[in-house]
Q: What sequence folds into this?
């Protein structure tokens, strides 16, 4: 009996030590609006999608071992057809401007629908969890030429405020609202 108790205690200790990754969880946020698009040098935006008054927010948590969970909420925007994280690739600490390569797809159509304004979490179906995630596989598959194409590079850019979230619409294909991390 004593050997069994000692063996079980040893297994429990090994399991506890093995489950500790030492990883640090980090949480980031971005506030999305049209002003962030124009501040980045975007001109000629259409008001057909409601982007003049649209808002959004994104919270993202990295678990420290290569997975990020996120929730992207959008309000008063019509015909949304894509959302991405764009990120600098040149190693500079200058804030990202328009046209930075895509690092990861967050939402990739089809358009959210009609002329009625969308209010809610992108990619969320009623009755299910409204939190999504991505890892290295999605970054490698989605990264454009010159993008931060590893999870660690993207998280470094987010940490250093050289990455942004961009929500695209049919009327504003280059981006309707955005927010820097």
A:
């Amino acid at each position: 009996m004593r050997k069994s108790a000692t063996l079980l205690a040893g297994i429990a200790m090994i399991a506890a030590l093995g489950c500790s990754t030492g990883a640090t969880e980090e949480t980031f946020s971005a506030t999305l609006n049209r002003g962030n698009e124009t501040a980045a040098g975007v001109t000629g935006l259409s008001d057909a999608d409601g982007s003049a008054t649209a808002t959004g927010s994104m919270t993202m948590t990295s678990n420290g071992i290569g997975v990020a969970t996120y929730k992207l909420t959008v309000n008063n925007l019509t015909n949304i057809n894509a959302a991405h994280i764009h990120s600098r690739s040149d190693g500079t600490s200058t804030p990202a401007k328009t046209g930075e390569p895509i690092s990861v797809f967050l939402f990739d159509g089809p358009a959210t629908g009609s002329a009625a304004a969308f209010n809610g979490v992108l990619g969320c179906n009623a009755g299910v969890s409204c939190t999504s995630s991505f890892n290295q596989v999605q970054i490698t598959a989605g990264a454009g030429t010159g993008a931060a194409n590893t999870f660690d590079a993207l998280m470094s850019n987010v940490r250093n405020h050289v990455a942004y979230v961009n929500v695209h619409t049919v009327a504003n294909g280059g981006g309707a609202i955005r927010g820097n991390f």
